[in-house]
Structure formats: C-alpha cells, structure tokens
Write a structure and sequence with these properties.
There is one protein chain. It contains twelve helices and 14 strands. It is of the alpha/beta class and about 375 residues long. It has two domains: about 220 residues, Isopropylmalate Dehydrogenase (3-Layer(aba) Sandwich), CATH 3.40.718.10; about 140 residues, Isopropylmalate Dehydrogenase (3-Layer(aba) Sandwich). α8 runs parallel beside α9 and α10 runs antiparallel to α11. The chain is globular. Bound molecules: 3-isopropylmalic acid and magnesium ion (MG). The site of magnesium ion (MG) has 2 residues, from α9.
C-alpha cells in the first residue's frame, strides 16, 4: 500500500503525532511545545494529528497499529513518534505486542532506511565512558540501518520434532532491498567523509555475502567513496576502541539495532540521539525506548525527541536551519549546566525535569532572531 499517494483532507500540511508508551508521552509533550513555537517563529501553519500506536493502541483498539492510525497518517507529511512498549504488554501474544505496531508502521510506510547519527556534544564529553585520548578525535558516525527486511520480517515459528521444540527466525534479503539501502549509504557518504564500512557477518551468513557483492558493484559507480568491509563482532569492538575511524556504517536491520545502542553509549546518554526513517512518509523517532521504569516521573531526557522534531521540520516542512539552530540551543542549555538527571555529572549541574528542559528550549526560541541564522 502506498500511503503517500493517498493523501487527502485539508490543504494544511500535517504531522502525525504518535506518543506511544512509557516516557513517549512525556517527551512528545515537549516536542509539541517546541513545534508550536517553531511554527510561530517561522510563520508556518502545521496541523498536528494524534494517532495511536503500541500499548496505548492495544488498550484502545486491541491492536498495536489500528487502521484508524494508518488513515490519519495518509493525510500527513511525516510521523513523529515517541516510543513503544512496556511491562503491561509483556505477556500479550507475540503478534500483538506493541513492538509489532512499530514494525508494521515502518513496513507500511516503506521506511527502509533508518539513519542514526552518532555525535558527541562537547558539553557532555565527560559523561562518555571513553578515555580522553580516544575522545579527542572527532566522533561523527552515521549508521545507515536497513529497516524493513532481514530477520525482523523473515519467517519465524516453532515446531516439534521427536519431542523436542525447535524455534526459528529467518534472516532474508532480496537483492532490491540491499540495492536501495546501499544507494542511500553511498549518497550520504558522498556528502560526508566519503567512507562506508559495510558491517556484516559474511564469514558465515549468505545474506551478508549478497550484501557485499551488491555494495561492491555499486562502489564502481561511486568512485569518490571508499567502501570497506568489517565483520560485526570486530566492528562492535572497533566502535569502542577507535570510534573516529568510522564515517558511514552500512548494515542490516538487526546489526543496526544493536550497534546503534552500543554507539549511543559513547555520547553519554542514549536519550540525546535522534533517528529518521526515510520512506513514503518519513518517521522521526528517538533511538531510545519507552523506559517504563521512569515513566510518568517527568525526568526523561527530551533532547533526542526535540532534535528529531528539528530534523523533521527542516527535512519535510522546509524550516531552514532548524536543525543547526536547535542543536546550538541545546548546547547552550547544557553549557549553562542545566541537565536532565541522566546527564548529571558534576557538582554544579542543575537537574531539571523533562518539562523544564522543554521550557528552557522555548525560552531560547523566544529570543531567536531568524535573520541571525
Ligand atoms: C529500535 C527499537 C525497535 C527495533 C524495537 C522497539 C522493535 O529497538 O528502534 O531500535 O528493534 O527496531
Ligand atoms: Mg533498538
């Protein structure tokens, strides 16, 4: 189904807002505050339409991604998503788990390319577990994760043989799925430091071998980009030992999921990292989860979510410089030692609540003069 072609409704451009579960609710609140203020500053009119996903949708519609939500998305230019999942739904049947709503959403919107930039704020360097000598080289990695294929979507099941239970999950990729994600990686590498590390397990997996063949062939068309290969076990070591070695990391769905959490630790907190998923309708979601252990306490870090919103406004709604400007604001706030609890490190740090951090962003925006940008 091609959702983008079914856009209808009013002429006003819209964002579909899906808060989901856990801290999703709290951080989306801050994103909405931010988006409304940005619309004021940029003099634009954007409609925000709420839709249900994950556990919240299970409770209301008995499915993690109801048709109602897909219908709303059909009228929107982008989806802004908090997080899904929580203890409450741990025991629902596999097909109805909150996470399945997210996977189906990615598939329905054809969001096959997930971009996860890993950068370190100077202001948070001390929070990184890495040694200063490793951190002094700039860390700027873009993880290009395939998002609608592989083991997440392959056949899975269980059967019984001779009284023994066997479970299986299939890692499978079509050539066209690999080609399109490789193309995205090459295009981004071209705009960056022109190096791609394809991370795989080609010493064991057939799907990894196909990935290598296709990437090699594509490299012939991108002479300015250097392509190299690294096994995933080695890559997970090198990300810690020598992170500045990497420019673009191109990888499949499951390795991308794991490596992006690993790489996030380098930055000091997973709470600050955004991601965008490119498809018929783009999805913007922070890379962290729903953190049910701290939900409802107004202490989650809204930075990843706010940065996602900035990326979305710039990429889908033409808010020029929104990302750079917002990033600068976040840096200023951190520099003045205002931190959510996950970022507290020094004596002089002033711990603020989720909503207070959002207010600080708004305060800065109130004093912004767009002509200065
Ligand atoms: C992510 C998450 C999801 C994934 C889960 C919630 C299904 O971990 O976006 O990284 O594995 O893709
Ligand atoms: Mg993950």
């Amino acid at each position: 189904m091609n959702i983008a072609k079914n856009r209808g409704g009013s002429n006003m451009e819209s964002i579909c807002v899906m808060q989901g579960d856990g801290i999703g609710k709290e951080i989306i609140k801050e994103a909405i505050k931010y988006i409304k203020k940005m619309c004021e500053i940029y003099n634009k009119n954007i409609e925000l339409k709420k839709a249900y996903i994950g556990g919240e949708a299970i409770d209301k519609f008995n499915t993690p991604l109801p048709e109602e939500s897909l219908n709303i998305i059909r009228g929107c230019k982008a989806v802004l998503l908090g997080a899904v999942g929580g203890y409450k739904w741990d025991n629902v049947e596999a097909e109805k788990r909150p996470e399945q709503g997210l996977l189906r959403l990615r598939k329905e919107l054809n969001c096959y390319a997930n971009l996860r930039p890993i950068n370190i704020y100077d202001e948070l360097k001390e929070l990184s577990p890495l040694k200063e000598r490793i951190l002094k080289n700039n860390i700027d990695i873009l993880i290009v994760r395939e998002l609608t294929g592989g083991i997440y979507f392959g056949e899975r099941g269980r059967f019984e043989v001779d009284g023994k239970i066997k479970a299986f999950d299939v890692e499978e990729y079509y050539d066209y799925e690999i080609k399109r994600i490789c193309k995205i990686a090459f295009e981004y590498a071209r705009k960056r430091r022109k190096k791609i590390t394809l991370v795989d397990k080609a010493n064991v997996l057939e799907s990894s071998k196909l990935f290598r063949e296709i990437a090699k062939e594509m490299a012939l068309k991108y002479e300015d980009v250097k392509l190299e290969f690294m096994y995933v076990d080695n890559a997970s070591m090198q990300i810690i030992k020598n992170p500045s070695y990497f420019d673009v990391i191109l990888t499949n769905n499951i390795f991308g999921d794991i490596l992006s959490d690993e790489a996030s630790v380098l930055t000091g907190s997973i709470g600050i990292l955004p991601s965008s998923s490119i498809g018929d309708v783009n999805i913007y979601e922070p890379i962290h989860g729903s953190a049910p252990d701290i939900q409802g306490q107004n202490k989650a870090n809204p930075i990843g979510m706010i940065i996602c919103s900035a990326l979305m406004l710039e990429e889908c709604f033409d808010f020029k410089n929104a990302f750079r400007m917002t990033n600068e604001i976040i840096k200023k706030i951190l520099k003045s030692n205002y931190k959510t609890i996950d970022l507290k490190d020094k004596e002089e740090d002033i711990v603020v609540k989720t909503s207070e951090f959002g207010d600080l962003v708004i305060n800065y925006l109130n004093n912004i003069n767009l002509n200065d940008n």
